[in-house]
Automatic annotation (TrEMBL):
Gene3D superfamilies (UniProt xref): Dipeptide-binding Protein, Domain 3 (3.10.105.10), Periplasmic binding protein-like II (3.40.190.10)
SUPFAM superfamilies xref list: Periplasmic binding protein-like II (SSF53850)
Residues in Solute-binding protein family domain copies: 94-484
UniProtKB keywords: Signal
Species this chain originates from: Streptomyces hyaluromycini
Record region (Disordered): 32-57
Protein name as annotated: ABC transporter substrate-binding protein
Position of the signal peptide: 1-26
Recorded superkingdom: Bacteria
Lineage: Bacteria, Bacillati, Actinomycetota, Actinomycetes, Kitasatosporales
Length: 572
């Protein structure tokens, strides 16, 4: 998963480069009040918002994007059946209606979900948005040439596993019915109480079939949101959005759409982005970033400057950095060895390696420490702040290693403050105190990802990270611990290769619940149950600190994305 530029959780999920974060307490107004320094703080319509990013907004097609809650820049153009609540902190973890009148009406067993579209919805050309357009938009996301989006629909929809999209199969998906222009019905293979969360993904964006240009659609997708694409250069490196005159706030209470124009400039070095935002000269005074954090050195400089500090927004996203074990590799098949390492870890040194306490918070649970995930506090192998070497040595002796042992820790060579050499070295130093000699194996980014995500090459001991596609325990625990999601001939994320019938059954039972608060409690209990097996060592949850230009107003940062919500920003 990439970061909260985040087009998406599973981006990290899929590339494990996710860079979004979760925090202990929902960040309230004190953390989220980053604002410009100009006199009038009231947001007004008008002006141009500049977005300075490192990663280009590639594949700007709703079928191909992998987003969390609809994404940031994408959600300005693509509306979906539901969306995330555009509010600060924990309030922003709620799913709310977007194109639909509600978040969906489930059948008794949550295998059928029905939506009704709002009246008066229009595209950028003034034509009406229909339920058939949403059905078609979903169907085209199954086309191999438009792959890249979230994989859930293929797994969840009845008869969708082998569907190849409308270009090859004109019949479409019978699992999606459109009895009239405003009604759409989904038939699922199994109960899914969190379907409203999935309906925030960009694959639920309406696409008029007559305007579909296949792989070229990304050059000018037809807007259903407050802005339309007027320029897309070098596959999203430079994206210019202007107002969609047919969009109406009367049928969209989530997006504020204050600026007249949004100019997205990408391919920039992260240090350059932060320098430009700090200086706030010319158009950079009305600029933000959706993908670049302040690093430790930059944060230290900013903290000492009151004016700059007032322009820093703090965010948390559901993300955990952890040590992964593969119990099929010795000596990690021995639970006492895994427990010993759990006790030996020095989280304070790991957090320092991740940039310090302002950028990382200690984790002893796999689930992020937010209520929406079902966070249930536990610390089954208490290491304190600096590790419990004595307890680790005791367990190693019980495991048959009275004189310690030597292991290899695989990490990414990328300087990402999550799975990188700094983190690996901190772990190496801590385990040495417990009599565990750690040899470090650094791999280049792509090689690292390919190696740790293949059951054929997966090491026994490596650094990993995971972020959620939406703020719930489901997309956090299931991909990592559901035995039925072990992939033997592709990208596998169940590193422990756990296939516990009781865990699988509980995942199924929770998925039947449409009461998300009740489901959250069950996810938290399941997290603790799995945690007792010491299959991972949770290390920390990242915290996101980002600068905004001095003329930026109305900064909103939710616990869903952890980053500034571009749909709320004003520049005047």
């Amino acid at each position: 998963m990439r970061h909260p530029s985040v087009t998406s959780a599973r981006a990290a999920y899929v590339s494990l480069a996710l860079v979004v974060a979760a925090g202990a307490a929902a960040c309230g107004p004190k953390d989220n009040d980053a604002n410009g320094s100009s006199g009038d703080s009231t947001p007004h319509k008008g002006g141009t918002l500049t977005v300075l990013n490192s990663d280009p907004q590639t594949d700007f097609d709703p079928a191909r994007l992998y987003t969390s809650g609809g994404g940031n820049v994408p959600s300005l153009v693509f509306r979906t059946l539901t969306t995330r609540n555009r509010a600060d902190g924990a309030a922003g973890t709620k799913v709310v209606p977007d194109l639909a009148t509600d978040t969906g009406r489930p059948s008794k067993n949550a295998t059928v979900w029905t939506y009704t579209l709002k009246k008066g919805l229009k595209y950028e050309d003034g034509t009406a948005i229909t339920s058939a357009d949403i059905k078609y938009g979903i169907e085209r996301s199954f086309a191999p040439e438009l792959s890249g989006g979230a994989p859930y629909l293929r797994d969840w929809l009845v008869g969708a596993a082998d569907y190849q999209g409308p270009y090859k199969d004109k019949k479409g998906l019978s699992a999606i019915e459109t009895p009239d222009d405003r009604t759409i019905v989904f038939h699922l293979d199994k109960p899914e109480g969190e379907f409203p969360f999935l309906a925030t993904q960009t694959q639920f964006t309406p696409v008029p079939q007559a305007k579909d240009t296949g792989t070229k659609y990304e050059e000018h997708p037809v807007s259903s949101g407050p802005y339309k694409v007027v320029k897309n250069e070098n596959d999203g490196e430079h994206l210019v959005l202007e107002r969609n005159k047919y969009w109406s706030a009367a049928v969209d209470d989530q997006r504020k759409a204050y600026p007249d124009t949004i100019d997205v400039q990408s391919g920039l070095d992260s240090s350059v982005i932060n320098q430009r935002l700090s200086a706030s000269q010319g158009t950079d005074a009305a600029a933000v970033t959706t993908d670049t954090n302040l690093g430790p050195a930059e944060l230290a400089k900013v903290t000492g400057d009151k004016e700059l500090a007032a322009r820093v927004g703090t965010g948390h996203f559901g993300y955990t950095n952890y040590i992964a074990f593969n119990p099929k590799v010795k000596p990690f098949d021995n639970p006492k060895v895994r427990q010993a390492i759990s006790y030996a870890v020095d989280r304070s040194s790991v957090i320092n390696a991740a940039g310090g306490s302002a950028l990382a918070e200690p984790a002893t649970t796999f689930l992020p420490n937010q209520k929406s995930f079902g966070y249930t506090p536990y610390d089954l192998f208490p290491a304190g702040d600096t590790g419990n070497a004595a307890k680790a040595k005791e367990l190693l002796k019980e495991a048959g290693y009275p004189n310690g042992l030597t292991v290899t820790l695989t990490h990414d060579n990328a300087d990402n403050f999550k799975t990188s050499p700094e983190i690996a070295t901190a772990i190496q130093d801590a385990l040495k105190k417990a009599g565990i000699t750690v040899k470090l194996q650094g791999l280049e980014d792509n090689n690292y990802s390919d190696t740790v995500h293949s059951v054929k090459t997966e090491p026994g001991f490596f650094l990993a990270a995971w972020g959620a596609d939406w703020p719930s325990g489901g997309p956090f625990l299931a991909p990592i611990f559901d035995g039925r999601q072990i992939v033997k001939d592709g990208a596998n994320f169940n590193a422990s290769q756990l296939n516990d019938a009781s865990v699988n059954a509980e995942i199924d039972a929770i998925n039947k619940l449409t009461d998300l608060d009740a489901a959250a409690q069950r996810w938290g209990a399941l997290d603790k149950k799995i945690g007792a097996q010491a299959l991972t060592v949770p290390l920390f949850h990242p915290v996101y600190k980002r600068l905004v230009g001095k003329d930026i107003k109305n900064v909103v940062i939710s616990d869903w994305t952890g980053v500034l919500d571009i749909s709320q920003v004003a520049v005047k």
